[in-house]
Amino acid sequence: MTVRGAEPGDAEAVRAIRNHAIEHSTALWTQTPQSPAEGAAWLAAHLERGSAFVAEAEGEVAGFAVYGPWRELDGYRHTVEDSVYVREGRHGLGVGSALLTALIASAREAGHHVMIAGIEAENAASVRLHERFGFQHAGTVREVGTKFGRWLDLTIMRLSLD
Fold it and tell me: How far apart are CA 143 and CA 33, in angstroms?
């Protein structure tokens, strides 16, 4: 497996992974899949920042990771939020760890101060992944989202990049 900066040509593979998460999990709190144009535009925004990575294994994109602004206001400009997604069937093979390693290194190189992870509270695998990288629990906000007919809790985790 190799991790590299994402490219425009990865948009469809990234969109397929995102859409699978939208349709089958609570990782993304929407039930509306991305169209090809929306997926390309979403990835393009991350490519402009240099904050998108893909993991390739056996000739396919096995996962992707991005970071972006945590909040839009000026005072938050040194804080970013991460997203790490692994293709169905590739979980437990180190893809997420490889991607998060690259993401943290990139955010540090870019001079960011803190990385935030917002994780659906029952997503134990994602919480464990972030804990292994030193993220600390900052709190859980109860019932702030909904999907599949139930309320979802959001666990916030924080990593100092300094």
Answer: 23
